[in-house]
């Protein structure tokens, strides 16, 4: 495990100011308080997980009519989509035009059929990380369960073999090494949310904490 105390990390982050000003031309692309990075940082609390694709499984459970366990082969057999989107980390970096390939979350939703009372989803990762978000936010056309980044298999550091990519929210809402999607009626805080991160996390309205 990491030597950093999550609570201390959150306290430090709350005090931090943007290190640099965002480029004025990028005003419509870079949310307030963010700056652009060209390289793709790795942000993991704890250890990188090393999961072989043939051992990877994902359980979709909770308030669904048809709970499902997906293998790597089954995931790859579903229709693939690619997205090109900007991503924003609450530690203030934004990376533009990242290119991902995977399966639309809404494709999986069609298979499991959420119960009418399901309104939130908890993402569960290998290694124990969790993060929660409203089901509504996951149903947009560019939220994918990703297995490729820039045309290559997803590196373990970035969550390979399979991670969530929900680019419209701060990137902590996109679990790496995804192994479970739990449909819930009530919202419940995930890992960082328990230490004060926002339950929703929209970067445009700076839903960082609270
Ligand atoms: N399982 C897991 N998923 C995670 C994290 C983590 O520590 N563990 N960190 C989150 C945070 S804070 C961010 S910004 C992104 C970082 O993804 P990256 O390392 O590919 O840049 O992953 C998110 N998903
Ligand atoms: Mo982050």
Structure, explained:
The protein has a single domain, classed as Sulfite Oxidase, Chain A, domain 2, CATH 3.90.420. A hairpin with a 4-residue loop joins strand 4 and strand 5 (93-104). The chain is 15% helix and 29% strand. With 210 residues, it is of the alpha+beta class. Strands 1, 4, 5, 8, 9 and 10 form a 6-stranded mixed sheet that branches. It has a 5-stranded mixed sheet with strand order 3-2-11-6-7. The longest helix is centred in the N-terminal third of the chain and has 10 residues, at 6-15. The two termini are 25 Å apart. The protein has helices spanning 6-15, 72-76, 105-112, 135-138, 191-194, and strands spanning 35-36, 57-62, 68-71, 81-88, 93-104, 120-125, 130-134, 144-149, 152-153, 163-165, 178-184. The structure holds ligand MTE and molybdenum atom. Molybdenum atom is lined by residues 43, 89-91, 171-172. The ligand Nc1nc2c(c(=O)[nH]1)N[C@H]1C(S)=C(S)[C@@H](COP(=O)(O)O)O[C@H]1N2 binds next to loops.
Mean pLDDT score, rounded?
95
Bound molecules: the ligand Nc1nc2c(c(=O)[nH]1)N[C@H]1C(S)=C(S)[C@@H](COP(=O)(O)O)O[C@H]1N2, molybdenum atom
Number of helices: 5
Radius of gyration: 17 Å
Cα separation of the termini: 25 Å
Measured as a percent range, the helix fraction is 10-25%
Number of strands: 11
Query: SSE order, as H and E?
Result: HEEEHEEHEEHEEEEH
- This entry's quaternary arrangement is single chain
In CATH terms, what is the fold-level topology?
Sulfite Oxidase, Chain A, domain 2
Q: CATH H-level name... which superfamily?
A: Oxidoreductase, molybdopterin-binding domain
Beta percentage is 25-35%
Supply the CATH class.
Alpha Beta
């Amino acid at each position: 495990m990491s030597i950093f105390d999550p609570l201390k990390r959150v306290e430090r982050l709350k005090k931090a100011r943007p290190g640099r000003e965002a480029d004025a031309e990028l005003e419509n692309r870079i949310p307030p308080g963010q700056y652009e990075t060209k390289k793709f940082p790795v942000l993991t609390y704890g250890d990188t997980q090393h999961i072989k694709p043939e051992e990877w499984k994902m359980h979709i459970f909770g308030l669904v009519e048809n709970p499902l366990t997906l293998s790597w082969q089954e995931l790859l057999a579903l229709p693939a989509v690619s997205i090109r989107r900007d991503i924003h980390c609450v530690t203030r970096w934004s990376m533009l035009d990242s290119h991902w390939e995977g399966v639309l979350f809404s494709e999986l939703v069609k298979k499991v059929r959420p119960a009418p009372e399901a309104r939130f989803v908890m993402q569960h990762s290998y290694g124990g990380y969790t993060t929660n978000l409203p089901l509504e936010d996951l149903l947009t056309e560019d939220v994918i369960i990703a297995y490729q980044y820039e045309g290559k298999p997803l590196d373990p550091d970035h969550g390979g073999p399979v991670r969530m990519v929900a680019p419209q929210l701060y990137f902590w809402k996109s679990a790496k090494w995804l192994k479970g999607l739990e449909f819930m009626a009530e919202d419940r805080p995930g890992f960082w949310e328990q230490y004060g991160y926002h339950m929703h996390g929209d970067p445009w309205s700076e839903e960082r904490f609270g």
